[in-house]
Amino acid sequence: MKEIPESVIVAWGEREPILVLSTVDASGVPNSVYVGVTGHYEREIFFVMNSSFQKTEVNILEGSKASLLFLTREKKAYQMKGEVRLEFDGPVFEAMMAVKPEQYLAKSVAVLRVEEVYSGAERLM
Q1: Is domain 6-123 given the CATH code 2.30.110.10 in the classification?
Q2: C-beta of residue 114 within 8 angstroms of C-beta of residue 82
Q3: Would you say 50 and 59 are in contact if contact means Cβ atoms under 8 Å apart?
Q4: How far apart are CA 113 and CA 63, in angstroms?
Q5: How many CB atoms lie within 10 A of CB 80?
Q6: Where are the domains of the chain?
Q7: What count of Cα atoms within 13 Å lies in the side-chain half-sphere of residue 109?
Q8: Sign of CA dihedral 29, 35, 41, 44
C-alpha cells in the first residue's frame, strides 16, 4: 500500500474541527454526517468517534466503504476514502478515548483504512 503523502498529514494537523463522514447503504444510497472527535492513528489509519451513529453504523456493519472530508484552516479540502470498520476496544479505541472530550459518550470508533486521498480533484494517493 502506498503511504499517505506527508503534505496530507500536515494538512490533517491544520484541519477545521468539524469533518464530514460519508457511507452508503446496501442499496447504494449515500449518508453523510458531521463528526468532531477524530484522529490519526497510523500512517494510513484515521478514526472517528461513534457516539450516536444510526444510519452510518448500519452502513458500516453492512460493509460500506467510507469517505472522510476535511478542510484546513486555509479552506483547502481533502478527502480520504477507504475501508471502514467499527471497533469497540483495542489500540485505536484507546487512542480515540484519549482525545475524546470527557462529556461525550463513545459507543465505538469508526476506523478508516485510507486507500485513496484527494485534494479537490487532484488524486494524491
Answers
A1: yes
A2: yes
A3: no
A4: 13
A5: 24
A6: 6-123
A7: 26
A8: positive
d(CA 37, CA 17): 8
What does DSSP assign to residue 88? S
Question: pLDDT (tens digit, 0 to 9) for every residue of the chain, 125 residues total?
Answer: 678 999 999 999 999 999 999 999 999 999 999 999 999 998 899 999 999 899 999 999 999 999 999 999 999 999 999 999 999 999 999 999 999 999 999 999 999 999 999 999 999 99
Strand duo 77-87 + 65-71: pairing = antiparallel
Q: Please give the single-letter amino acid code of residue 21.
A: L
Q: How far is 116 from 94, CA to CA, in rounded Å?
A: 25
CA–CA dist 39, 47 (Å, integer): 5
